[in-house]
Amino acid sequence: MSWQETYNMWKNYSELDQGVAEDLKNIEDDESKLEDAFHAPLEFGTAGMRGIIGAGINRMNIYTVRQATEGLALFIENEQGEEAKKRGVVIAYDSRHMSKEFAFESAKTLGAHGIKAYVFEELRPTPELAFAVRHLQAAAGIMVTASHNPPEYNGYKTYGEDGGQLPPKEANELTSYVRSVGDMLAVEVADEDTLKEQGLLEIIGHNVDKEYLEAMKTVTINPDLIDRVANDLKIIFTPLHGTAKVLGEKALRQAGFRNIELVPEQAEPDPEFSTVKSPNPEDPEAFEKAIELGCEIDADLLVATDPDGDRLGLAVKTAESHYEVLTGNQIASLMLDYMIKAHRETEILPKNSVIVKSIVSSDLPRAIAEKNGVQTVDVLTGFKFIAEKIKHYEQDSSHTFMFGFEESYGYLVQPFVRDKDAIQALVMVSEMAAFHKENQYSCFDALQDLYQEYGHFKEKTISIKMDGIEGAQKIKDLMDRLRNDSPDSFGKIKIKSVEDFKTSKRVDMDGNEETIDMPSADVLKYHLVDTSWIAARPSGTEPKIKFYIAAYDDSGVAVNEKMASFEKAINEIVGE
User: Fold this and answer.
1) Counting Cβ atoms within 10 Å, is residue 544 exposed (0-12), middle (13-18) or buried (19+)?
2) Distance of CA 55 to the CA centre of its chain
């Protein structure tokens, strides 16, 4: 069916939702917008789906949400059975436009199949959804969120019974069911009040909050330290108009922190994220309000979380009393360094401890871990792969999970959650800051010490946006070109070996070949002779291709020079 035929089917559908109908009317005179909205279905992949809110099969609306949930319902019915239908699905949502509506449309779609839904009474962070799936022993979970994307976006993520995002095999099965739903306009939904009467729709909230906060007590390593420093440590916290305020402040106070200031302009939910260009703690500009307040009260630590509360950014005070926004890799390195020291001090560091990180994350934590007898395991990008490892370690008792992280500002301390958890990270970075404060040190000073001890590691991610149909083809062509005409160096530094995670092959420059024991993924990673590396990866949720750069040298000046030369080489490749 052509996009024009699909558009006409929607236009002539007599029962089209009023809001969707208005969106459709707003673009009916713009053929390019119509084509983009109807040329192909919104992609449902391993991380769910994400897109602009509006009318069309390539947009986030009640019909695309119903289609995704219909696929999940069929997956539960056919792959898991009646017992799973009774266990049900937990649904949470963030502060974005249409999030609550999409959550209840999901519940009504599940209800039409006799599948119970637990829906949070108000917005909640993603890590609590992941926790609730395990706590309620549900069969699956749905999180309605577009993470840190602009206000016009929303999204939909699915979780398995272990509280982690679905691993590749199950995700592919679910995707097949979603794609089998031919006419999204015809998906049946049940009546909300009837579902409540039948016990197929249950509203949850404070009861789960209480259990999550109880589990949060296990994140703190040294409560006596916190008690000694709590009056002096000044923490500024901004949820960037999102969900993390609900639990973040409570978790901090429960851990014993007392001097906590919320950025007032950003404390309450706001789907427009009106005080920031982007509600993304990876973006230094998102810290502007926090830095203003930090300067006023001379705060030690500025912490920001993204709208759905799973990513955390950090700004720390320098020797010149300025605030420096750290990268996700720097934050992870500092957290791990402190956690190992604290565990050793309290004599609770198991000999079989392991940290798990993504293949595009810094190797500085690996160096810290190895020096302290802790193993490091690399996995593909996506916290579901970290969750898989946690499950494996629990089953065979081979290792004790200590810490998991991704360079994209996602961290996990305790595995009662199986996804990145900014609430856990919020408490841990505050305890870390308390440790350095008691030693008359700052987190910035501690980072410089790590560089002195382990060498200068510097990382950067370059995201190149390529929108629309043409953009998707450009990304594919660029990855094909990198595979078929591989460079032999970056910035005059020779390539030592190339890992292609799509073919699961590692090849060195002498032609020697090894198999990579990981699931297939569209990622290329170039290891250079100086231990620096470059990776290329199309985003799984956005129209972007990402280049990850990790430079290493003995001095800060030298590593900065390498970073600049690597960036120049990448820009030349992209521009060809």
Assistant:
1) middle
2) 26
